[in-house]
């Protein structure tokens, strides 16, 4: 986009050129929390990166195609902001592009059926396996066939043993409505670049699920451009992986845009999970809400949340709020939480932030226990509620149900307290 | 049958400067089928008595005993005390965001019934009926526990729980505070329905006498400075209404 360069130490200079993103030492602002030894494979441009497979399941009225990665990402307003995203963009020739059209909003059919139909019609589009990028498949194990919604697009990254990277472009054309689920599962080292572009009046919900195997490494950059009066919901759910570092950036392409960025993470003892948000309020009368919730448990569990909001001089009448809350379930956990707010104009409706990190509330535990609920069950209920509270704000019932199921499945395996 | 016997109970509360003794030897027998009221000025320790008996982690029993039907409660976790038949209606019910009233009630009922979940066919109807008796809509069950409830809704919800969980013995701590006159009546009637089962015990802890107009106690105990200083029938509450606590405060 043509936005002027940001003069702040918080931001890097966006560039496709790998030379503009030299190997970091760990002292840089954007790497200050990350364990550099564990991140190292994702910073290594000399590794044998392969194009990761992306399986797409989509209904009618949704176009899935393969496009030139750099050109496609650039057209959608995407520019790498760190070394992993630059490596990913350099190593992948083709991007999977998903385009949502407005007429898909009317018929409510099941994802499974539509997926079959789409596959039969357009099966030739996707070349699966190592080099192609897009495999269009009818249905997958584990995808909830009960999701019934306007145009449920499901993308599954299929990482293998080799370091892999994928580029995804999601374009919601003017006045289209849609939901896109991105599922990250399996082992591996993965760099995921995703551009999201919302045309005027579009309404798009993007859910990215990080349900990786315990040894997986994942660096992701999601950049969204929200058009005039468009509404983006971006929900990041991180449960798995050894290291997950997800950067989500949002800017606007006209006034009246709304961005709601929600996240939830459950960080176990062996895990490092970092969520970085940057909302560039570069257009007047735009709105953003950032709300991330994390629960950490086990010795050495580490999470980082960095939320940046920049309100540009021209962006009058904006309304922004960012919040992060962390629940430390056991001793030995560290949650970093950094809300940053840069304001270049005071003519705004609102700009706020809050951050709170704490242990279990003894009063909540006592209240539940006093009703006969055993301590372990009470703790599980409180953590479930902590996440459900934010899920309830998404406002898309099918997505809410999907995420509640994911939280319940995750909490079932919560280790017992000592 | 649910009889609470408290003998020589002493207890500390945790404070920033260390443990502070609050209960200084409480003796009290509440037999099943009776309603007792504990009345006392602010800061007398009557809420501490409720929390110490229920097992709040900030209150530590340092001496004496508390038994429910002969079972010693001190040393038990709060949920074990609940399973033994104890219920504490709280002055300030705690908000639990994201946990719906319906889920909370079902989980509590299941735990109290030894892991047996309430019947799907009848339980929602029972919940709705209990809500309706306290003047609450069925939608109330979908709200997060105590979150955003008005003062009156919180206390009504405590009585809804009392009726649905139906313990052997209920301690109700300042259940009438913050209520308007209609709510006091509805809460009082709820307590009466519970007590009318005949084999339940009730200990009402209150600062004011107005709840006692709806729920008439068999015995009234005056609580000052961590112990019971006077006992009598309902007429003792009437006298307090006229004279206040000043007489007792001077005696300390």
Structural commentary:
With 418 residues, chain A is α/β, with parallel strands linked by helices. Chain A has helices at residues 36-39, 69-75, 83-91, 111-122, 129-132, 362-369, 375-391, 397-412, and strands spanning 50-51, 53-57, 62-68, 94-100, 109-110, 134-136, 148-149, 152-158, 164-172, 177-186, 189-198, 203-212, 217-226, 231-238, 243-252, 258-267, 272-281, 287-296, 302-311, 319-328, 334-343, 350-359. Chain A has one domain (18-360). Helix content of chain A is 18%, strand content 41%. In chain A, the strands form 3 sheets. In chain A, strands 1, 3, 4, 9, 11, 13, 15, 17, 19 and 21 form a 10-stranded mixed β-sheet that branches. Chain A is globular and about 60 Å long. Chain A starts with 35 loop residues before the first helix and ends in a 6-residue tail after the last helix. With 252 residues, chain B is α/β, with parallel strands linked by helices. Chain B has helices at residues 46-54, 78-83, 101-112, 123-133, 151-165, 181-195, 234-243, 246-251; strands at residues 4-15, 18-30, 35-39, 59-68, 71-72, 86-89, 96-100, 144-145, 169-173, 201-206, 219-224, 227-232. In chain B, the strands form 3 sheets. Chain B has a 6-stranded mixed β-sheet, with helices on both faces. Chain B has a 4-stranded antiparallel β-sheet with strand order 2-1-4-5. A two-stranded antiparallel sheet of chain B has the order 7-8. In chain B, strand 4 and strand 5 form a beta hairpin. The chains are: A alpha/beta (418), B alpha/beta (252).
């Amino acid at each position: 986009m043509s936005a002027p360069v940001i003069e702040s130490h918080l931001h890097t200079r966006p560039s496709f050129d790998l030379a503009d993103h030299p190997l970091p030492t760990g002292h840089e602002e954007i790497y200050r929390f990350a364990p550099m030894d564990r991140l190292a494979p994702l910073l290594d441009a000399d590794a044998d990166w392969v194009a990761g497979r992306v399986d797409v399941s989509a209904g009618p009225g949704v176009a899935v195609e393969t496009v030139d990665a750099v050109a496609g990402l650039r057209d959608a307003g995407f520019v790498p902001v760190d070394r992993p995203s630059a490596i990913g963009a350099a190593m992948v020739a083709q991007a999977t592009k998903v385009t949502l059209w407005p007429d898909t909003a009317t018929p409510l059919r099941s994802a499974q059926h539509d997926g079959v139909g789409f596959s039969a019609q357009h099966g030739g589009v996707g070349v699966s396996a190592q080099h192609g990028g897009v495999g269009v498949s009818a249905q997958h194990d584990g995808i909830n066939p009960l999701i019934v919604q306007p145009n449920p697009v499901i993308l599954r990254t299929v990482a293998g043993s080799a370091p892999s990277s994928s580029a995804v472009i999601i374009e919601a054309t003017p006045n289209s409505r849609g939901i896109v689920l991105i599922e990250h599962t399996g082992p591996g080292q993965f760099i995921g670049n995703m551009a999201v572009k919302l045309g005027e009046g579009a309404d798009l919900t993007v859910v990215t699920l990080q349900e990786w195997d315990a040894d997986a490494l994942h660096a992701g950059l999601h950049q969204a451009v929200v058009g005039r009066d468009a509404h983006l919901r971006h929900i990041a759910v991180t449960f798995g992986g050894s290291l997950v570092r997800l950067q989500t950036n949002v800017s606007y392409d006209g006034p009246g845009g709304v961005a709601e960025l929600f996240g939830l993470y459950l960080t176990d003892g062996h895990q490092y999970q970092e969520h970085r948000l940057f909302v560039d309020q570069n257009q007047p009368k735009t709105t953003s809400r950032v709300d991330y919730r994390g629960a950490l448990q086990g010795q050495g569990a580490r999470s980082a949340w960095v939320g940046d909001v920049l309100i540009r001089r021209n962006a009058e009448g904006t309304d922004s709020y960012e919040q992060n809350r962390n629940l430390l379930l056991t001793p030995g956990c560290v949650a970093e939480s950094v809300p940053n707010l840069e304001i270049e104009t005071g003519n705004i409706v609102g700009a706020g932030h809050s951050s709170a990190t704490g242990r279990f509330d003894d009063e909540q535990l006592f209240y539940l226990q006093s009703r006969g609920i055993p301590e372990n069950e009470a703790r599980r209920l409180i953590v479930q509620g902590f996440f459900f509270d934010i899920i309830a704000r998404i406002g898309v019932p099918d997505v809410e149900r999907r995420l509640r199921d994911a939280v319940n499945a995750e909490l079932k395996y919560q280790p017992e307290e000592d | 049958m649910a009889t609470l016997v408290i003998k020589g109970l002493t207890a500390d509360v945790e404070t920033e400067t260390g443990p502070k003794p609050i209960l200084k030897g409480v003796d009290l027998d509440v037999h099943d089928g009776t309603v007792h009221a504990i009345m006392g000025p602010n800061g007398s320790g009557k809420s501490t008595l409720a929390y110490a008996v229920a097992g709040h982690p900030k209150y530590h029993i340092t001496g004496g005993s508390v038994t429910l039907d002969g079972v010693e409660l001190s040393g038990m976790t709060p949920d074990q005390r609940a399973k033994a038949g104890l219920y504490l209606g709280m002055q300030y019910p705690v908000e639990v965001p994201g946990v719906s009233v319906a889920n909370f009630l079902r989980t509590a009922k299941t735990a109290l019934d030894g892991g047996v979940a309430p019947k799907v066919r009848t339980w929602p109807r029972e919940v709705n009926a209990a809500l309706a008796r306290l003047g609450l809509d069925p939608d109330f069950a979908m709200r997060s526990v105590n979150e955003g409830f008005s003062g009156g809704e919180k206390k009504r919800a405590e009585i809804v729980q009392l009726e649905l969980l139906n313990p052997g013995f209920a301690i109700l701590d300042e259940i009438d505070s913050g209520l308007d006159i209609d709510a006091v009546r509805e809460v009082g009637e709820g307590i009466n329905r519970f007590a009318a089962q005949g084999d339940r015990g009730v200990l009402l802890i209150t600062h004011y006498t107005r709840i006692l107009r709806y729920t008439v106690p068999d015995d009234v105990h005056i609580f000052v400075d961590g112990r019971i200083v006077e006992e009598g029938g309902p007429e003792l509450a009437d006298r307090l209404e006229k004279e206040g606590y000043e007489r007792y405060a001077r005696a300390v």
